[in-house]
Design a protein that fits this description.
alpha+beta; 390 residues; five-stranded mixed beta barrel; globular; five-stranded mixed β-sheet; 10 helices
Length: 390
């Protein structure tokens, strides 16, 4: 175990709670859950004790063999590297966080042909479409977010022709490029999500879907690919109000959910249930996401979407996962398990979190009923979750 690992933890603080340990990495603005055995090792590393010395202290304190103690410390370091890789992947694929300005746009945009304003969280986006930009293919995706007044932070976004494709710029700086008109809506959605989250005054951004009915909010955290967006679509088809299908903002204090009320993003080959529930889906325009996936966007009046100013108190936390061919079942899970799953989808906002914030977060998760949901049948999953909203 090389001492080169020493010093890796300068930006990491360890917070010991009653039955959990939470690590806060200030450099990545990421939180990680650790068990109490690992917390002893982390505390030694936080206090700048070299890994080999941490192992010696561990062996002496708990009366275990030095070789086993060294293995414990090595596995803790290995877990740390795994967390770092996961955090980097999350930032690179759908995660949110502050981004630096892009390159300077090599020309000044001409007067726009069309200008429309939309509100998301606390941000008003003034979207300016340049000449020869097919705004008619983008506007239907965001039209229901339209607003008349520039209340809150305003961002002016220009969409202009750029070479063979299009450029999306703000204040003269290039933020995104795309090659085809079919990619514009998805790229704009990503940019608006990132900007609105970073402008918000929330505690954290969550990779999560969220729905609400009769005052009951179900939060469904999960990394991309677990099936949360598809489940949110099925619940929206059943009459739930959508707060977000990919990202939401968690406020501090009461830990309520602030919606990112974009329309539902549904892949071009959805489950039969969604074809049946949304008969007009096939007629919707097909858009392409940056990863090459073809999608449709469902917007009001086909679905109910929470207004931007809405705040929802979470009554249930459900961690969905698609299990083809298995049994659809809802399984209660313990606080430690729930906290670890939650933190894998959690990105703190702002400069730092203090101990009080972390303790309040842990207490909130502990006080909220948490479940794992194995989904094989969407219809059965909706039937199970429907009882929470009645």
């Amino acid at each position: 175990m090389p001492d080169s690992d020493f010093g890796t933890f300068d930006a990491v603080s360890v917070h010991l709670l009653e039955d959990a340990a939470v690590l806060y990495d200030r450099s990545r603005r990421s939180l990680f859950a650790a068990n109490m055995n690992a917390a002893t090792i982390w505390l030694g590393l936080e206090q700048k004790v070299r890994p080999r010395e941490v192992a010696e202290a561990l062996a002496e304190e708990f009366g275990i063999e030095r070789g086993i103690a060294r293995q414990h410390v090595a596995s803790t370091l290995l877990q740390w590297r795994r967390w770092c890789r996961e955090a980097a992947l999350r930032d690179a694929s759908g995660g949110v966080g502050p981004r630096g300005r892009g390159q300077c746009l090599p020309f000044s945009p001409a007067a726009p042909a069309e200008r429309h304003t939309y509100r998301l969280l606390d941000t008003v986006f003034a979207i300016q479409y340049g000449h020869n930009v097919p705004h008619w293919s983008v506007r239907p995706v965001f039209e229901y977010l339209g607003c008349d007044t520039a209340a809150g932070t305003e961002r002016v976004i220009d969409i202009v022709r750029f070479g063979e494709g299009f450029a999306i710029a703000e204040s003269g700086y290039l933020h995104r490029k795309c090659a085809a008109a079919s990619q514009l809506a998805s790229v704009m959605r990503d940019l608006m999500t990132e900007s609105a989250i970073n402008d918000s005054r929330g505690l954290a951004a969550l990779q999560a879907a969220a729905v609400e009915r009769n005052g009951t909010c179900i939060l469904m955290p999960g990394k991309p690919g677990v099936g949360k967006s598809c489940l949110a679509a099925a619940l929206a088809a059943d009459g739930f109000t959508l707060l977000g299908d990919e990202n939401v903002v968690l406020s501090g204090g009461e830990h309520s959910i602030r919606p990112l009320p974009f329309g539902l993003c549904i892949k071009d080959s959805p489950p039969a249930m969604l074809w049946d529930r949304f008969p007009g889906l096939a007629e919707r325009a097909v858009h392409m996401r940056p990863d090459g996936t073809h999608v449709h966007y469902l917007t009001p009046p086909e679905i109910a979407i929470a207004p931007a100013a809405h705040r929802a108190r979470v009554e249930r936390i459900v961690f969905p996962r698609y299990f083809p061919g298995g049994e659809t079942e809802l399984i209660p899970i313990g606080n430690g398990n729930a906290l670890q799953r939650m933190l894998s989808c959690f990105s703190p906002l702002g400069d730092s979190m203090n101990r009080r914030d972390i303790e309040a977060l842990v207490a909130w998760v502990a006080a909220t009923p948490c479940y794992a949901l194995h989904v094989s049948s969407l219809c059965e999953a909706v039937r199970i979750l429907r009882r929470f909203g009645t």
